[in-house]
Amino acid sequence: MPLRKGSIGFRVSTPTSIETPGARHEKLGTRVERGLVTLLLVALILLPAASTVARRFLGRDLPGSSTLAQHITLWVGFLGAMLATATGRHLALSTLDFVPPGRPRRSAAFFTTAVSAAVCALLAWASARLVYVEWSGFARVAFGIRTAWSELVMPVGFAVMAIRFALNAGNGDEPAARRWAFRGAAALVAVGGFLLAWAVPSQALVTALLLVMLAAFLLGAPVFIVMSGVAMALFFRGIVESGQEPALAIASVPTAIFNLALTPSLPALPLLTAAGYILAEGGAARRLVRAYKGIFGWMPGGVAIMATFVCALFTTFTGASGVTILALGGLLLPSLLEEKYPEDFSVGLVTAAGSLGLLFPPSLPVILYAVVAGAAVDVLFIAGLVPGLLMILIVAAYGIVVGVRSGAPRQRFDGREAAAALWDAKWDLGLPTLVVLAVGSGFATVVEAAALAAAYSLVVELLVFRSIHPTRDLPRVLVHAAALVGSVLILLGSALGLTSWFVDAEVPTRLVEWMTGHVHSKALFLLMLNAVLLVLGSVLEIYSAIVVLAPLVAPLGEAYGITPIHLGVVFLANLELGFLFPPMGLNLFLSATRFGKPLPWVYRKAFPFLLIMAAGVLAITYLPQITDGVVRAFGKTP
Questions:
Q1: 11 — phi, psi (to 5°)?
Q2: What pLDDT does residue 569 have?
Q3: What topology does the record note for this protein and the membrane (predicted)?
Q4: Residue 637 or 24, more confident
Q5: What φ, ψ does residue 349 adopt, rounded to 5°?
Q6: Is the pLDDT of residue 126 over 70?
Q7: Cα radius of gyration rounded to whole Å, the chain
Q8: pTM of the prediction?
Q9: What residue ranges do the domains of the chain occupy?
Q10: Environment class of residue 289 by beta-carbon count within 10 Å: exposed (0-12), middle (13-18) or buried (19+)?
């Protein structure tokens, strides 16, 4: 989305056609990628759904289906990232408007694209190194497919992105000879980045690389490029200090990306994103708006209440707020805008509500925390019921206030219209119902439920409403979903690579040690814990934060006389809030990506929700009765 002159923000360019240099070659390349990613997404939908049916009616799963789904997600993510590079959809800081036009601006654009090409070239080499190591192993995906074969998409994907970034260096109105000169120069820079793997490590080189990354970030390089570059530079510094082999150190970043792709619940992200795109393309928003008017229109802030509870519901069953924003953002935002809610409030509501629901069963973060911290899963879920509901209610209450102030229309309740609207939207409302029943009843896992939801959306839009043509429209919808998923997955993987360095450098451990040495009051400890978890929750991926911090925090809570269950709820509630904490809160990035808004704009619009939810987190922290008291009421020990 282009920004107004004089504004600073994060841009996500979404052109309708590919306008990159070497357009003929890229159209051919992206045509192959589009076809392949469409087939893979369809396979990803069918595989877990078929496994669910086989288990229920044949008594056994399809062999290797879950592992194969994870590797398909890896391929979808990298193909989507390649398409995002071709179409300019990667998240980046938009500051070129502040650079004087002409040669300075062209130089700045060349610098960012050349650095991007160099980082991708180095990532391609590091990924190839990872594949080389894996090639000597015997790991299999399924059906005899070797893990190393699946990993090949990583070096190939990064190499293609490096080439495309280099070609982008020649964009502009310059004569053809000058454009190709820029492209050639960018290619030379990329080769230089590739050769860094064999460079003699030194502190001066590391400092220079970090400064280059900072300059590239400020001038508009994609965020995943900056995160990957900084992570590799920091790991490179470890070479200077330990004498480690350069190849082994910089391969840590693609290793982290690969490990992210193999997260068991990750296939739910592309599946639910595809389901949301399909329903949105098929006109579900229009049908749901009518249903919401019929059922909630008489209430002040009725649609805002609905959006809050729906977002919380999806986050509960996916365990990731990113899925909620990506899959439901395109569905809920038009509904809110049509009801005359301000755009800033509407974007802020979807951004904030995407992190609600993490405390309810069967949320994966709760289960992971219980395993890592040694807490009882069932007791932790009971303890999270009231705090989770409290967070939802305070956000919904703010929606009521805004609805009244903005004059959101209210209507007299008409039972006949409500019934007709509900009947018209029965297929659309069936999607969340399907996910709830499938997971809640134990019929399917989260990934299988997401696959069933995607398959359900295909049936509804292709066969029931016939609003999407299977050959003319469906591939385009799936490609758009894949490009968004790819840009997000590559960003999350790069962030996880940077997190790996934080873990190796023992940064979280040092923070905790500092707290124990300076904090002696229980109340002050809880306040400091809120602050630390808020900051770390904004820069660490939630599962990494749980694995790294929970074993360190749990003994501290015991030392201060805090029950393990109450500490667990406080821990997770703070991480939930961290999704909204600038500058690196994950929901802020995802919302900017999903809605095409500058990131500082999203900061401002999500800030009221940050304050409201912070008040809820403080109440959860200092009122143990709503956790421990409820647990005791159920006859359990907190």
A1: -110, 150
A2: 92
A3: Multi-pass membrane protein
A4: 637
A5: -65, -50
A6: yes
A7: 25
A8: 0.71
A9: 22-261, 268-472, 502-633
A10: buried
